[in-house]
Amino acid sequence: MKLYDFPGAPNPRRVRMFLAEKDVSVELVNVDLAGGEHRSAEFLKKNPSAKIPVLELDDGTCIAESVAICRYIEAEHPLPNLFGATAVELGLVEMGNRHIELELLSQIGISWVNGPIVARMAAGRFSQIPEAKVQSDERVRSYYARLNKELEATQYVAASRFSIADITALIAIDFASAMVDLKPEPELAALWRWHKLVSSRPSAQA
Ligand SMILES: N[C@@H](CCC(=O)N[C@@H](CS)C(=O)NCC(=O)O)C(=O)O
User: Fold this and answer.
1) Which domains does the chain have, with CATH numbers?
2) Using a 6 Å cutoff on CB, does residue 10 contact ligand 1?
């Protein structure tokens, strides 16, 4: 199996961390995002959406979308369970993961594409919208406050135990802190307690 990857990109890190939790190794293939390799005809055959990660199976089947890849891996390697084991856990983990994806990671993405690093990388290839970044920065900060409040009552993001929702939240916050100038405020104590706990897992180094 091969994972199409790029160091520093959050979604491939999500899959690498998931694989590390399952103790599964795959060959990593770097895709030159800065050079536009993901938009080449060859790569578009693997993922017409021109995004990484993509997991290519030994028979050539390509699975894109981080959660789809993680679901495939969980089906092949059920333990440790990371999507929920009971009906209620399945529901809570799915909800937690979708909230983080749809309300935090997507807003971080808007701040990123309208921010200074992409301005340099894209070099006029598309127009940025500075007002969109002002709004998404605010939404990210407000989600951090919400998450902090939730984590005052629970140890993990969903279902009272470690799950894919924690992985998604960690890769989102680490990317926002390192690349988008959106590090959570130091006074968000519960969020930082959770961050330390999840970052101490060996898989966080993946
Ligand atoms: N929903 C997709 C998002 C994938 C995604 O946005 N990947 C980024 C890297 S983290 C990418 O390939 N960006 C290249 C581009 O948009 O041009 C997933 O969960 O895998």
Assistant:
1) 2-76 (3.40.30.10), 87-205 (1.20.1050.10)
2) yes
